[in-house]
Fold:
Amino acid sequence: MKEFVICINNKNNPASLIVGKIYRKLDDPEAESFNMIRIIDEDISEIDGYLYPATYFMPIELPEKIQQALMVAENLY
Structure:
């Protein structure tokens, strides 16, 4: 099961993050130790994602079918 988060703050990053949008969280224990989160943002050309403050996001649980749909949509870009 993939981890997804919803953006609750896009301070200083309005071009990269959309408040209320669901993003896929990438595993990055080192970033998390600094209270950062790695996600695939609006600049989907960077497959390794970008780091943002973890406080900009809230984790959410999604049904498997929605997760699959989001993964397919992400791969279309």
Notes: The first helix runs from residue 29 to 33.
